[in-house]
Amino acid sequence: MFRNQYDTDVTTWSPQGRLFQVEYAMEAVKQGSCAVGLTSKTHAVLATLKRAQNELSSYQRKIFKIDDHMGIAISGLTADGRVLCRYMRNECLNHRYVYESSMPIGRLVRQVADKHQVCTQRSWKRPYGVGLLVAGHDARGPHLYNTCPSGNYWEYKAMAIGARSQASKTYLEKHFEAFPTATPEEMILHGLRALAASLSEGELTKANCAVALVGEGSSFVVLEEDDVEPYIQMLKEEEGGGGGAEPMAEAAAEGGAAAAEGGAAAAADDGGDGAAPMES
Amino acid sequence: MATLTAGVPKHAAGAAGIKQHASWSPYDDNGGTTLAVAGADYCIVAASMRMSTGYSIMTRRSSKILQLTDKCVIASAGFQADMKALHKMLQSRNVTYQHSHAKPMSCPATAQLLSNTLYHRRFFPLFTFNICAGLDDEGKGAVYTYDAIGSYERTGYSCQGSGKDLMQPVLDNQLKAASPLLIPARGDTVEIFVITKEGVRREELELKKD
To answer: Where is this region: Disordered (chain A) (predicted)?
Structure first.
C-alpha cells in the first residue's frame, strides 16, 4: 500500500486519520517471537518462545520479574522491553517503600501505557517497539494485561502476541472456558500447547521456551531450562511419544540464517523416555 | 513570649556568650538488646521484642530483626524510627541487587552495604547499633558488628543495645571458652533467628514482662 507520504514522522497524521509510525511500531511487536498469557481464578501464567540469533548465541530472555506479585513477557524490541522493565521495577520498589504494600497491577499498566502514549505525540521521540503481557496477582485475583506501542492496553482472560500468535489465540479461544478452574500445572500445559501452536517448525525444548507463574500463594517465578523440562515431557507423553524429526530452530523472521537450535537440546532430552513429572 | 536564658533574653544569649542547649532532640532510645553468635556452619541471632521510651513500654512485640535473604539478617538496637528507615532502605537495595544480579546478596556484600549506608549519614547519624549476621560465601557463620556511623568488623559473636554491658562479659566468658550459650535478657520476648544452610528458622522465647 502506498502510504510513504505520511509515515516519516510520528506526529504526522494521514488523511485517513492514521499514525503510520505507531502502526509500524506495532509491526515490530508482530515480528517478535510468540508470547502467551492466560489466567485462571487463582493464577496467571506466561509462556514464551525464546529465539537465538545463531548457533553460538544464547536464547533471548523474554520474561522478567517485576516484583513478587507481577512479571512481564515481551515481544518486539528487547532493548525497549528492558527499559520498560526497569521502569516498572522502579515504580514497584518505590510504591513498596512508601506504602509497604504491592503496587496494584492495573495502575502500573496504565502508567506504562501513558508512557507509550507520550512517544506517539512528540516529534523528537519514537514509539516503543515492544508489546508487553503483564501477569500479576493482587487482592482482586490474577490479572493479565496487554500493552501496545500505541498506548492502548486491555485486560485479558488469555492472549498471545508476536509471530504466528493467531494460531496460539485460536487454541486459547477453543479452551479458555476451562481455564478458571484449571490447576496451575494445567495452566502451564495449556500455555505450552498454545505456544506450540505458533511454531512453524521444530518443537518445544527446554532451551527455547520459558514459562512463568504467579498467583495465590505463589510469588512470581520463572521456569526455564531444567525447570520447564518436566512440563515439556508431559506434553510429549500426551501426544504419545516425542515429535519425530530432528528439531530445528524457527527461522528468524527478519531473514537471518536459520540456526540449528536443537542439536544439544535433543541430546539432553533423550527423546521422551518418560521422566517422572515434577509436582508443581 | 519572652524567654530568658540566664537572665538574658533568649535571642541575645548567643551574643552574650552564653551556650544554649537544644530544647528538642531528633533522637530517642527505644531500648532493647541484640545478640549474634557465629557457628561453624550456622549463625544465631537474637533480639528482645520490647520497644520502650524512658520508663514506659510502647509495645511488647516489635521486631528489631530484618531478614534480607536466606543467608543474612540485620539486627538493630537503638532508635526504632531510624531502624525502620534503615531497614526499608536496605530492603529496597536488596531487591534492586537481586534484579540486577539475578541472585541474592551475600552476607559480606550486605555487611559492606550497611556500612556504606550508615556512613552516608555521617553528619546526621542513624541512631542504630547494628549487627549483620548470617552465612558467608563458604557457608560458615558470620557476624559483623557496627557503630552508629558504619565502622564495622567481622567477629565470632557480638551484642548491642541497652543490655550490651551486661551481656558482653558473659559472651566473652562463654564463647572464648567455646561452650553453648544461655541468653540472659529482660524484655517481654526474645525472637531468635537460626540461620543454617537449610534456611532461616524463627523461634520465640518468653521472658519476664516487667
So the answer is: 238-280
Query: What ipTM is given for this predicted complex?
Result: 0.79
Produce one character per residue of B19-50: b if its CB has 16 or more CB atoms within 10 Å, e if not: eeeeeeeeeeebbbbbbbbbbeebbbbbbbbb
Q: Taking all residues of chain B, what is their mean pLDDT, rounded to a whole number?
A: 89
Grid coordinates of A154:
486491555
- Assess whether pLDDT exceeds 50 at residue A143: yes
Q: Would you say residue A66 lies in a domain?
A: yes
Number of domains in chain A: 1
Q: Is A30 within 8 Å of chain B by CB?
A: no
Domain B33-184 has CATH 3.40.50.1820: no
> pLDDT digits over A73-93, tens only?
999 999 999 999 999 999 999
Q: What does the radius of gyration of chain A's CA atoms come to, in whole angstroms?
A: 19
Q: CA B17, B19, B23: angle at the middle one, nearest 5?
A: 145
List all residues of chain B from 85 to 144 with a beta carbon under 8 Å from chain A. Answer: 88, 92, 95-96, 99
Distance CA B171, CA B48 (A): 17
pLDDT at residue number B209: 80
Domain ranges of chain B: 33-184
Look up the domain containing A49 and give its range.
28-260
CATH number reported for the structural domain that contains residue A196 in this entry: 3.60.20.10
